[in-house]
Design goal:
9 helices; globular
Length: about 210
């Protein structure tokens, strides 16, 4: 069974949704026959590579709401994180550009390490308050996931995988995907958002049964 996932590193619900899917997959009896492909999406392609602003301030500015209201919204997301065993340090999360992080995910996929790199990127962004647009940060995270540091640095210094990132974004537009996370099972069944491990478990069972009912 094929699952295609569109997500953005700077999207808390993407971190939450992919974690929930992995939780469902852990108990899925056909896990070894599930192929997952992660695809790039940018919620804010014009975000800077470095900023003194934090996610709470960015949200307040973007929605035209008081910082206190934005903080309350983030507190609700943080509670959802806790329910899935995650930690969200929204007061330190830096809303930086995610394009290079997406290039790293594609590079990791070419090395069979996509599933090792992606959660590290999410954790660095939302839990550790790191700048995930910084080259040295990306190289370190890649190295921790088992990728060669110098190869990663060389890739980031080039425009390698930029076309793949743009192709993912274009494909999302063609499919009518306007928000992430977005999960497509077997090319035709979709789940939008972080709906919980149980919702993903039901989807896995239903799609598997339909695909293999013939």
């Amino acid at each position: 069974m094929k699952i295609d996932i569109w997500s953005d590193i700077g999207c808390p619900f993407c971190y939450l949704g992919t974690t929930q899917l992995n939780e469902a997959l852990a108990g899925f009896e056909h896990r070894e026959r599930v192929e997952i492909s992660h695809h790039s999406f940018q919620l804010d392609p014009n975000a800077p590579r470095q900023t003194d602003m934090r996610v709470v301030e960015m949200l307040a500015n973007k929605r035209g709401i008081p910082v206190e209201q934005a903080e309350a919204m983030n507190q609700q997301v943080a509670k959802a994180f806790e329910a899935s065993g995650l930690s969200m340090n929204y007061k330190e999360a830096q809303p930086v550009n995610t394009f290079d992080a997406h290039r790293l995910v594609h590079f990791a996929a070419s090395q069979g390490q996509q599933e090792a790199v992606l959660p590290r990127l999410f954790k660095a962004y939302f839990t550790d308050g790191e700048n995930t647009a910084d080259v040295e940060t990306l190289v370190r995270l890649a190295s921790e996931a088992g990728l060669d540091a110098e190869q990663t640095r060389a890739m980031l210094a080039s425009d390698q995988y930029a076309a793949e990132v743009q192709a993912d974004i274009s494909r999302a537009a063609q499919l009518g995907i306007h928000g992430v996370p977005f999960f497509i099972f077997e090319g035709k069944y979709a789940i939008s958002g972080a709906q919980g491990a149980e919702a993903f478990n039901r989807a896995l069972q239903q799609v598997w049964e339909e695909v293999h009912s013939a």
